[in-house]
Amino acid sequence: MENLTIIRHPVLQHKLTLLRNKQTKSSEFRRLLNEISGLLAYESTSELALQPVDIETPLEKMQGQEVKDSPIIVSIMRAGNGMLDGLLNMLPFAGAGHIGIYRDRFIQNTVEYYFRLPKTSAGKQVLLADPLLATGDTAIACVDRLKQYGVGKITMLCILVSEQGVEKLHHFHPDVKIIALSKERDLNAKGHLLPGLGDAGDRLYKTKDA
């Protein structure tokens, strides 16, 4: 599928299996998501532009390279917050923003309750973080808002995606690249990914019994 990258690296797939396991405790779930997110950061920034910089090693002067334009990491709250530290640990020069949007099943629409980006967001590459891309409605609403602010290229970083969600997001925003670890078999009647890993927010923050 165009503009969708599924990473099948053995280490990531091993960590994903532990993440899926319902026996994995919340503390371990947080640690695994943090580690996976750092590795996703590496994959998603391979095309960042570099610029020369003069430095001095303990032995001599030389010219090295540094990232020219740092990206902005935007978390789709609340589950996206579980990815934020891992991404920022790998990309400490990046800015960070938060979007609070959820799909209300009663009004059949998305509801925004929080939106905050760094002031220098215009034209910047955005890494949009959310562990799960299911129906795609929340992701579409987030991308809509980001584009209103004139950001640059948007890459969505996920753990799991559905074919329906990817197709829907790309119908409205074909320019958004998606990087994930697995495209799931299906969605159930409640819009949950199958086989999935459950509700990522609940598992991160122990807000519901297993």
UniProtKB/TrEMBL annotation:
One Gene Ontology term from the biological process aspect of the record: uracil salvage
Pathway where this protein functions: Pyrimidine metabolism; UMP biosynthesis via salvage pathway; UMP from uracil: step 1/1
Keywords: Allosteric enzyme, Glycosyltransferase, GTP-binding, Nucleotide-binding, Transferase
Group of enzyme by EC: transferase
Domain Phosphoribosyltransferase: 7-207
InterPro entries, alphabetized: PRTase-like, PRTase_dom, UPRT, UPRTase/APRTase
Cofactor: Mg(2+)
Pfam families: UPRTase
UniProt-recorded Gene Ontology molecular function terms: GTP binding; uracil phosphoribosyltransferase activity
CDD domains found in the cross-reference section: PRTases_typeI (cd06223)
UniProt name for this protein: Uracil phosphoribosyltransferase
